[in-house]
Specification:
Blueprint: H1 11-27, H2 29-37, H3 42-59, H4 64-88, H5 93-116, H6 122-144
Length: 153
């Protein structure tokens, strides 16, 4: 699998996605410099992002404000791992797969916790889970066949 195969955008969409990615990376450069100075790697940021989800698990039933705060922290760290990889010029398929695994795990954990604590209806949560897994599976198959889904154009 090459780096070019690890995205799900059409050729037309890739330009717009790349522009936004570059803008976001440039916006957080001061933070990326601090992470680089701390010798953090993108995979370490991904693992921090994954571990933060357990703060959501802990607070989901007792304090929804803290639970949402941990989700926001997760999203922030999740959005910075790729930027750090580009900043350090160490993008890789392995890092992209770690990021995908963390993203998907966080979503599954979040839905299961929401079902467990009756935050969402079990039927709708299960239906969402089934369709989500089906969508990811189909996207991986299309990606493998080098036929990206057209989201925008």
């Amino acid at each position: 699998m090459s780096k070019q195969n690890l995205n799900y955008f059409s050729e037309k969409e890739r330009g717009a996605v790349q522009k936004f990615t570059n803008f976001r990376t440039n916006l957080v450069v001061p933070l990326l410099k601090i992470f680089d100075w701390m010798h953090l790697t993108p995979n370490i940021l991904s693992m921090i992002s994954f571990l933060v989800i357990f703060g959501f698990v802990y607070f989901a039933n007792t304090n929804m404000y803290y639970a949402v705060l941990f989700i926001v922290i997760h999203i922030i760290f999740d959005s910075l791992d790729g930027s750090l990889a580009r900043y350090k010029n160490i993008t890789s398929d392995q890092g992209a797969l770690v990021d995908i695994f963390v993203d998907q795990s966080a979503i599954v954990i979040g839905v299961l916790v929401a079902i467990y604590y009756s935050i969402i209806n079990p039927f709708w949560g299960a239906l969402y889970g089934i369709f989500y897994v089906l969508m990811i599976t189909l996207m991986v198959i299309l990606n493998y066949k080098n036929a990206p889904i057209k989201f925008i154009f």
